[in-house]
Amino acid sequence: MKIKKAVLPVAGLGTRFLPATKVVPKELLPIVDIPTVQYVVQEAVESGITEIIFVTGRGKDAIEDHFDWVPELEQVLEERGQIEVLETLRRIAEMIEVVSVRQKRPLGLGHAVLCARDLVGDEPFAVLLADDLIDAQIPCLRQLLDVFEEKKDSVVALMRVPREEVQRYGVIRGQGLVSRLYAIQDMVEKPAPEDAPSQLAIIGRYILRPEIFTLLEKVSPGRGGEIQLTDGLSRLVRERKVYGYEFVGTRYDVGDKFGFVQATVAYALKRPELREKVKEYLRTVILEK
Ligand code: G1P
Predict the structure, then answer these.
(1) Of 208, 191, 202, 187, the residue nearest 246 (C-alpha)
(2) Which residues line ligand 1 (CB under 6 A)?
(3) pLDDT value at position 286?
(4) How much distance in Å is there from the Cα of 237 to the middle of ligand 1?
(5) Which ligand 1 atom is at minimum distance from the Cα of 131?
(6) Which percentage of the chain shows pLDDT scores above 70?
(7) Rg of the chain (C-alpha set)
(8) What is the C-alpha to C-alpha distance for residues 20 and 42, in angstroms, rounded to an integer?
(9) Mutate which of 133, 169, 208 to test ligand 1's pocket (most atoms within 8 Å of Cβ)?
(10) Strand 181-189 to strand 242-246: parallel, antiparallel, or no bridges (unpaired)?
(11) How confident is the model at residue 14 (pLDDT cuts 50, 70, 90)?
(12) In contact, 227 and 203? CB cutoff 8 Å
C-alpha cells in the first residue's frame, strides 16, 4: 500500500526563537527566501506524499495560508508583469492538499501525532518534524519509504551523533542488519550520555503503522512531562518490528540558532545567483577576524 498522508506537528511555541516568533510561527522563518516548513513539505511531495495534515495551534494559521492561493497578490503580480514570482506562488498553492487539526494543549509530540488520528485513519502514514531540514539527493522521507515498502513495518530516520549530544534526541538500541538498516530493540527519549544505549539518534522523519495510535493513548507523560512519540514507539517495538535507517544526507537543526545559521549559509551556497557572492563575503569576513 502506498503512503499518501504525512503529519506535520506545528503547534510548538518556538520559544527558542523569541522575539522573532512572538507573532510569526517559527515554521515560517525563512532560510534565504523559503520558509523552513516549505522545504519540509517539498521533501514530502518529492517523496510521493499527496496530503499534508498540519497539527496546529493558536497563532499558526499563517502556515496553512502559505500553501493556499492569494488572488489579490497574484493579480498585482500579473499587472506588474512579475511572472516568475507569480509562478512560484502558484506552484506552492498547487503543491499539495492541506488539512489541519488543532492540538489544543501542548502535551508533547506523541500527543500531537495522536491528534491526527481521525484524519489519518487506519493506514500507515509519515511524520515530518519541521525543525529538521534534510538536504539529500534522494529525499530522506523517500529513503524511509523504500524501506517501508520492502519491510511493511514502521521505520524511523537515524543519525549518528557525538555522545555528548545524545541528550537532545530519542536514542535507539538496535541490531545492525544490512548497510544502514537496524532492527530497533528499544529506544529512549533524551537520555544522559552515560545512560544512552547507542549514539544513533532519531531524526524527525518517521513512517508509522496505525497501531501507534492505540499505543500512544496509553503512554503516560515522560521526559519533560510530555507524551513522547519515542515512548509510543518503544511500546510498538514490543509488538511489531520497527526499523531504523541511517539516511544519506545532511541534516540541519533549524530549531537551534546555530543550526539555523548553518542552514542559511549552506542553502545560500546552493543558490547559483548567490553562491559566488556569499563565498567571497565569507572569505572576507574570515580574513578580517
Ligand atoms: C523530537 C523527538 C526526538 C527526536 C528529535 C529529532 O525532539 O522527541 O526523539 O530525536 O525530535 O529532531 P524535540 O527536538 O522536539 O525535542
Answers:
(1) 202
(2) 109, 129, 131-132, 169-170, 189, 201-204, 228-230
(3) 85
(4) 18
(5) 12
(6) 100
(7) 20
(8) 24
(9) 169
(10) antiparallel
(11) confident
(12) no
Amino acid at site 164: E
First to last CA, the chain: 56
Q: What one-character-per-residue DSSP string does 247-261 give?
A: -SSEEEETTSHHHHH
pTM attached to this predicted model: 0.95
**Residue 288, pLDDT score:** 81
Give the Cα separation of 63 and 46 in Å (integer). Answer: 19
The residue whose grid cell reads 531524526 is 203
Here the cell at position 86 is 507569480
* Alpha carbon of 196 to ligand 1 centroid (Å): 15
Q: Where are the alpha helices (DSSP H) in the chain?
A: 36-46, 61-66, 71-79, 83-94, 109-115, 117-120, 140-151, 211-218, 229-239, 257-269, 272-288
| Structural domains for the chain | 5-255 (3.90.550.10)
Kindly report the CA angle at 270 between 257 and 285, in degrees rounded to 5?
60
Q: How far is CA 97 from CA 6, 7, 45, 128, in A?
A: 11, 12, 10, 16
